[in-house]
Amino acid sequence: GDSVTQKQGQVTLSEDDFLFINCTYSTTTYPTLFWYVQYPGQGPQLLLKVTTANNKGISRGFEATYDKGTTSFHLQKASVQESDSAVYFCALAEWGAGGYKVVFGSGTRLLVSP
Amino acid sequence: EAAVTQSPRNKVTVTGGNVTLSCRQTNSHNYMYWYRQDTGHGLRLIHYSYGAGNLQIGDVPDGYKATRTTQEDFFLLLELASPSQTSLYFCASSPDWGGDTQYFGPGTRLLVL
Hints:
The complex is a heterodimer.
Chain A: E1 3-5, E2 10-14, E3 19-21, E4 24-26, E5 32-38, E6 45-50, E7 56-59, E8 62-65, E9 75-77, E10 86-96, E11 99-104, E12 108-113
Chain B: E1 4-7, E2 10-13, E3 19-25, E4 31-38, E5 42-49, E6 56-57, E7 65-68, E8 73-78, E9 87-94, E10 103-104, E11 108-112
Parallel strand pairs in B: 2-11
Antiparallel strand pairs in B: 1-3, 3-8, 4-5, 4-9, 5-6, 7-8, 9-10, 9-11
């Protein structure tokens, strides 16, 4: 079945470090892909959204590229700040035979120290 | 900005108890969703709806019912709660289907003893 894999459960960085969060997906279609961010005590909120029509999403210094060849949608940021500490979820959404389907990855917790 | 509210924010019940979680969105979005969030699993879709009176089954529906009474209100019902349903529950809404941006509420933490 469809799946989204985030291998990193936690990433620990210092301010101004480069961020890379791995996300790969498995599906037979070309879904819409998302990165959501969840700050402590809050619900997730959209960070990036990319469809098959636009290969790259950029927001608040974060970027992710939709790579159909490697079925990856990694999240990157050149220089993280302490305020970026949060949980990041990769997700896909698509219509299938059984109707609408959305699959979230297990999340990657980012801890940034000053 | 879309506003999604949930109540209660915290709930404790006993095994076999009856629980109703409420969600209201004030931006006239067509789609509403219920998710559960558990460590190691991310968010998993329980049920969703594309309008008042409509209900669609998600990926983990067992033990849950849901009802969309109005455009704004979506309820999640646990009629015989079990400890396995201890979780953090999120409601979300979107203007159109799930390929659209979803706006999440603040969550309800449920503990089933």
